[in-house]
TrEMBL record:
<feature type="transmembrane region" description="Helical">
    <location>
        <begin position="46"/>
        <end position="69"/>
    </location>
</feature>
<keyword id="KW-0812">Transmembrane</keyword>
<dbReference type="Pfam" id="PF13782">
    <property type="entry name" value="SpoVAB"/>
</dbReference>
<feature type="transmembrane region" description="Helical">
    <location>
        <begin position="111"/>
        <end position="135"/>
    </location>
</feature>
<feature type="transmembrane region" description="Helical">
    <location>
        <begin position="6"/>
        <end position="34"/>
    </location>
</feature>
<dbReference type="InterPro" id="IPR020144">
    <property type="entry name" value="SpoVAB"/>
</dbReference>
<keyword id="KW-0472">Membrane</keyword>
<feature type="transmembrane region" description="Helical">
    <location>
        <begin position="75"/>
        <end position="99"/>
    </location>
</feature>
<keyword id="KW-1133">Transmembrane helix</keyword>
<protein>
    <submittedName>
        <fullName>Stage V sporulation protein AB</fullName>
    </submittedName>
</protein>
Amino acid sequence: MWAQQVLLAVIGLSAGVAVAGGLFSFIVELGVIADFADRTHTADQILFYEDCTALGGILGNLVYVFQIGIPAGDWGLAVFGIFGGIFVGCWAMALAEILNVFPVFMRRARIVRYISVFVISLALGKGFGACVHLFQGW
């Protein structure tokens, strides 16, 4: 019986490592980290940024899997939400930049003159949806 449990643990750990490695490879491949380093003129620190990204993923998984409570209160939750939203937004924009989604859409929809309005509307809609989702439980 214990051999089966050990085998399941090894398979689960291996699958988790493979998925996490693929995710972080995808993040690096999209150029999110390199783009941030380029925009902040700190390209000499890119290996440090990549290490921090991997460490953040590892610590986040440990907190999630072992359900470690972090006594940060409502302010900590708000700060985490802001940083999480920035991360997801940058990741989505990097993916959209790679795929050239917005330029193709703008040309086909013939709304090239209103690109700034479209981007602001997209940001406001995302923020409004996040607020509705956040305050729905209250």
